[in-house]
Amino acid sequence: MATETLPNPTRTTTTAVQGSGGGRFSIGNILLTLFLLFWAVLVIFPMVWLLYTSFKTDQEIFFSPWSLPAAPQWDNFQRGWVDAHIGDYFLNSFIVVLPSLALILILSAMTAYVLARFPFPGNRIIFYGFMAGLLFPVFLALIPLFFLVKDLGMLSSYHGLILVYVAYSLPFSVFFMTGFFRTLPSELHEAAIIDGANQYQVFFRIMLPLAQPGLVSIGIFNFLGMWNQYLLPVVLMTDAGKYVLTQGLAYMLHQQYYQNDWSGLFAAVTMIMVPTLLVYVIFQQQIQKGITVGALKG
Amino acid sequence: MYRNKYRVIIPFLIPSILLYVTFVLYPYGRSMYISLTQWRGLARAPVFIGLENFQHMWGDSNFWNALGNNAFYIVVLPIFTLSLAIFFAFIFSQGVPLSKFYRVTYFFPQVMSVVAIGVLWSFVYHPTIGILTSILQMVGIEAPPVWLGNPDTVLGAVAGVTIWHEVGFYMILFLAAMESIPMTYYEAAMLDGASRWHLFWNITLPMIRDTLQTGVIFLMINATNMFAITQTMTEGGPSRSSEVLSTYLYNEAFINSNFGYGTAIAVALFFLTLVISVVLSRLLSRESLEY
Questions:
Q1: pLDDT tens-digit map of A226-268
Q2: Chain-chain contact of A166 with B179 (C-beta, under 8 angstroms)
Q3: What DSSP assignment string belongs to A212-240?
Q4: What is the CATH number of the domain that holds B218?
Q5: What is the pTM of this model?
Q6: Chain A neighbors of B25, CB-CB under 8 A
Q7: Is A199 within 8 Å of B92 when comparing Cβ atoms?
Q8: What's the total number of domains in chain B?
Q9: A295 touching B (Cβ < 8 Å)
C-alpha cells in the first residue's frame, strides 16, 4: 500500500490517498489525467473556437470551420452589436434585472427578518405559505400568469417583468434569509432597543449590515437566475424591442435560417459570453458559493 | 422588547405577501380551474368542460411522445451527470495536480445561460459550420449523423449538452459533502490497507448519500422541464422527436391558443414533479448516517 502526498494538494484537511499499487506514473493515473484534461478541453475549446470564429468571414466559417481567421473581421462585432441589437438586449436585461435584484434583496430581508425574529399568530402559516412556492414548477402558473399580467396592462413592460421576477424569487430568498436571521444573536437587538433605537433603526443599521454575507449569496444566486431567465420573458415580453438578452439570442439563432449572417451571430454570442467569463474568473469563489446555496432548497 | 411590534411586522410583510399572492399563488390556483375548461381565445371566457382535457390527453399521442422524451431525460441525466460529478469530486478531494484549475473550469458552464449554451452547441453540432462533424471525419467516420436533425440522435445530443452544463454544479456540491467527512474514517481504513477504490465505495459513497439523493431529485425535476435548451437547440424537432411536455404545452397555449388544454398539460407536469419529489425522496430515504 503506497501512500504519498501529492506535490500539489488542494486541501490540507485530507491526506492524499493513492490507490494500491499506484505510483504517480501508473497507467491508471495517466488515463485519469487524460480524462481530466479531456473534460477541461471539452469545456474550454468550444468557447475558444467561438471566440476566434467570430473574427472570421462567412466564407471562412463555411469552408474551413477549424482555421484561424485570415484577417480579423472587426465589423462582425459592429453588426452584432448594432444590427442584431445585442446592445439593446443588454440594456433591456440590465433595466429588468438590476431593479429586480434590489427589490428582492430588500423585500426578502424584511420578510425574513420579521418571520425569524418576531413571534406572532400566523407567523408559521406565512412562512410555510412562502415555502409552498418551492414545490410548484413555474409552468403550472404560466398561462394564468400571462393573462393576469395582460389584464393588469403590464405585458411587454419592464415593471411587469420586474414584479414577476421578484415574486418568483421570494420563496427561496425568504427561506434562505430566514435561516440566516435566526442565527444572529438577539442580544444585539435588545441592547439597541435599550439604547433608544426604534425597530426600523435596529433593522436598517444593525440587522441588515450583519446579514450582508447572506445577502451576497442570495444576490449572486438571484442575479444569475434572473439574468439567465428565459421562460418568463418569452411569455411576458412579447415586444421585440424589449427582448432581454436570452430572448434576443434565441431569436437571432432562429432568424439565422433566413439571414445567413453567421459571422455576426458568432460575434454576438462572443459579446454575451466574454463578460460572463470575466466576471466568473474574478469572482469564481463567491459565485460557486452563491449558486450552490440553491441546493439547500432540497 | 417587542412593544409595538406590529408597526414593524405589518409594513415589512405587506409588500412581499401582496406580490406573492398576486403573481404566484393566484395563478397556481387559477391553473387548477383553467385545466378543467376549454379556452380558445383572448376575448372569450373559459368554458367549463370537467375532465375532458385529461381524457383528450390520455389519447393524445403527442402528449405521450413528449412524456416519453422527458422520461428519457429523467433516466439519462441523473445517471451520467451524477457519476461524472462524484468521480470528479472524489478525485479533486484527494488532490491531484491542477485540481484547482479543473474545478474552476468544470464549473464555468453553470454560470452561462442555458440559451447561450444552446446556441454555442448548435454551432458545434452544425453539419457544415460545426467542428464536431469534421473531428469525426478526421478519425475516419465518413458520414457522421446530423446530430440535431436526426430523430435518433437529437435527444442524446441535447442530453449531452445538459450534462456538460450541469456536471460542475454537482461536483461542487459533492466536494462540499466529501470535505465534511471526518478524516479519521479514511485514516483508519488506510491503516487496514484499504485501496482507494475501497475507500470510495465503503466510506465516501455512503457518507454523501443525502447529497446524492438531493442530486437525483434535482436532476429529475430539471429533466421534467428542459424548456430553454429544447426551445433553443431544436424547437422540439425534427418533427416532434425532441418535444418535451414544457415545449408542447407552450406551443398548445401560446401558438395554437388552446389555453385550457395547455394548462391541463401543465397540471400533468406538476403531478410528475410531485411524484418525483415526494415518492422518490420517500423511496430513497433511509435513516441518514450519523457522524
A1: 999 999 999 999 998 899 999 998 888 888 766 677 888 888 8
A2: no
A3: HHHHHHHHHHHHHHHHT--HHHHHH--SG
A4: 1.10.3720.10
A5: 0.87
A6: 129, 132-133
A7: no
A8: 1
A9: yes
